[in-house]
Write a structure and sequence with these properties.
about 200 residues, mainly alpha, elongated
Length: about 200
């Protein structure tokens, strides 16, 4: 097949025209490195390699962009790349590369994320466990982190903070009390933890 034209597009892509027909978009940097120009012949194998190289480069660039803004778990990084920039295979390869470079570390990410969920967002252990698992953190790491925060006084402190900030007057108003109770359950607190914290507040 003949490369009849190559036109620049948004997001650093180049549109290739093969045998006069609009074909695929390729990463511009990969296209320039290939040395291809209109009039050149491409085999199916050469085109496949070009697409693969383009996919890999865009996956890597997206990974670096995402990690520049904040830490990610490996699963989270893979999902974002595959959803917005590259194939699943290229996304997984890019995430593996970031892990090898030390730019992705699930244990360090999980430790920071758990701290944020417990101490800033005031989540209970059950909800923290759920959120960590959604990020692809292994059960072993999750269990180890939860042990570090296995403290009834922290749960009570967080519950009181939530009540004070969002449900003022819950002690006098039954409707507000029910709403607060439901919200605390969604935050991951057990019936016993909520009852104990509310009971101590009333006392």
């Amino acid at each position: 097949m003949e490369l009849t034209a190559a036109e620049p597009r948004r997001k650093s892509l180049t549109q290739l025209y093969l045998d006069g027909e609009e074909a695929v978009k390729i990463d511009t940097e990969v296209f320039l490195r290939s040395g291809l120009k209109p009039g050149d012949e491409l085999s199916d194998e050469e085109l496949s390699e070009l697409i693969k190289a383009s996919d890999a480069r865009r996956a890597k660039e997206k990974a670096l962009y995402l990690l520049e803004h904040r830490n990610h778990s490996k699963k989270e990084l893979t999902e974002k790349i595959a959803r917005t920039a590259a194939s699943r295979e290229a996304a997984e390869a890019a995430a593996d590369q970031m892990e090898e470079l030390g730019l992705v570390n699930d244990e360090a990410f999980a430790r920071d994320y758990a701290r944020e969920l417990f101490l800033r967002r005031r989540f209970g252990a059950r909800r923290v466990k759920q959120e960590l698992r959604l990020k692809g953190i292994s059960p072993e790491i999750v269990d180890e982190l939860l042990l570090e925060y296995e403290d009834d006084s922290l749960a009570a402190e967080n519950i009181r903070a939530v009540l004070e900030k969002k449900y003022a007057g819950w002690q006098e108003d039954e409707k507000t009390r029910r709403r607060a109770y439901a919200a605390l359950q969604r935050l991951g607190y057990s019936y016993g933890q909520i009852r104990q914290a509310m009971g101590s507040e009333e006392d």
